[in-house]
Amino acid sequence: MAGTGAAGLKDATAVVGIGQTPFAKQLPDSEKTLACRAILAALDDAGISPAEVDALASYTMEETDEVEVAKAVGFGDLSFFSKVGFGGGGSCATVAHLASAVATGQATVGVAWRSRKRGSGPRPWKNTAVQLPTPAQWTRPFGLLRPADEIAMLTRRYLHEYGATRDHLFNVALACRNRANQNPAAMMYERPLTRDMYMTSRWISEPLCLFDNCLETDGALACVIVSAERARDCRQRPVYVHSAAQGLPAQHHGMVNYWNDDPLTGPAWTAARHLWKQADFTPEDVDVAQIYDAFTPLIPLSLEGYGFCGRGEGGAFTEGGALEIGGRLPLNTSGGGLSEAYVHGFNLINEGVKQLRGTSTAQVPGAATCLVTAGEGVPTSALLLRT
Amino acid sequence: MLTPVVDDDGAPFWEYAARGELRVQACAEPGCGELRFPPRPCCPHCHSFDSEWRRMSGRGRIWSYVIPHPPLLPDYAAQAPYNVVVVELAEARRIRLVGNLVSGPDAPLNSVAGERIRIGARVQVVFGTGVGDGRDGPRLPRWVLERP
């Protein structure tokens, strides 16, 4: 089974259960209750009793802690727990940490989760008291207040430097919306998007308009990770964690990454180098991708970072239906953060699992490999999943 | 308006700004002297903990800009849509400062229309008498076009 060293993680563990709550602007349950519902659904999907869970992982921005979850759901003794920083950059790392723990014998059954009431709760950027002095002192007094403003700054430079256009950003928004229109669980199910709607929508932070931004959502998701050996006895077809990586580039500065040598090559580039080094396949072999989409420009930036095209070619890559079903790289097949739900990217992980089980509402025929990524622009993480 | 939440490393920047000087932290190790921003305890190039604050010419070029629209905090919403720019300093292209392009030292955030802003435009630093509209708070570095 799993050895130590570079090959220790490869296919040594599998995701065997996924669970989610409904997604909506407003749900009556608390974040804690939503977390418990998603976790129990994931364990039920796997056919594993809560008493067998001995490892947990979530984000540092998750409000419900391990103690609360463990006692509410009835877990056994825990031997591993981990939280990953940097907001949406942490999503894939939660699975990666559990895969490492299981592969090295520190735990046997791991649960990763994220619960969020961003739809009905306050906008986090309005709480100016909790902003860290660095880098907030260099940005916020000047009115660069929200994540959308911070990413719009990089976007303007990206469009200027490479000749990418708003039509390229629209291609991203449309691909996600088209998939959400196939997904009854998506917040934008039965709500088609047109180019005219996109081009005439209100600005949030020029050059980003309403449809370049993710949805504010209440909801929770979870998944279950066990060893590849154990996975063979679970209810569902195992989805193997083939490769995993985190990425925090040299001289990086969080989401206001304007101060390093090359702000347009972000954390995706760093994570990708490690991810592909450990993998038996290459970007050309990826059947379907779930790429973190809090904002549309994160897609071209990530397509470049993860090696699907050359530098500066991410905009052009989106042309000709490349991101649609049947295209070169079907993208965010549940609708993603832009059109299914924005739960800090955890829905992208579960959708990757569905694709490899063959149960997506926008199934890519015969999908055997899937890239899942966490937030670009912040210290990030990524997973290669395979059947 | 929000005032800078100053940390130990950043404090000298704001003290110099209060005197109308734009200074950037530099390594004080002989033979190194690298500029660094944001400020931090030691030099990432040579690992010296000795630093100095070097006065800049205050000239630069616009590297990028955004135009925020509401929802925004109330003081900012009142001036929206306004601009936020990133300026690359003439002395060191990779020292970039977030700021606002304004028509004068104490002009409002929206005093230069978005259509007039271009990446690459030359700008010069100015210091208002206080935050934003000049009434109170620390002095922020702000930017005016060299050729208005």
UniProtKB/TrEMBL annotation, chain A:
Pfam families linked to this entry: Thiolase_C_1
Thiolase C-terminal domain: residues covered: 261-379
InterPro entries xref list: Thiolase (IPR002155), Thiolase-like (IPR016039), Thiolase_C_2 (IPR055140)
Alphabetized CDD domains for the sequence: SCP-x_thiolase
GO molecular function: acyltransferase activity, transferring groups other than amino-acyl groups
TM regions (residue ranges): none
PANTHER family noted in UniProt: ACETYL-COA C-ACETYLTRANSFERASE (PTHR42870), NON-SPECIFIC LIPID-TRANSFER PROTEIN-LIKE 2 (PTHR42870:SF1)
NCBIfam families: PRK07855.1
Official protein name in the record: Lipid-transfer protein
TrEMBL record, chain B:
Organism encoding this protein: Streptomyces liliiviolaceus
Domain named ChsH2 rubredoxin-like zinc ribbon: residues: 14-50
InterPro entries documented for this protein: ChsH2_C, ChsH2_Znr, NA-bd_OB-fold, Thioester_dehydratase-like
Family matches, as SUPFAM superfamilies: Nucleic acid-binding proteins
Name of the protein described by the UniProt record: OB-fold domain-containing protein
Domain of life: Bacteria
Family annotation (PANTHER family): BLR3430 PROTEIN
Every ChsH2 C-terminal OB-fold domain range: 53-127
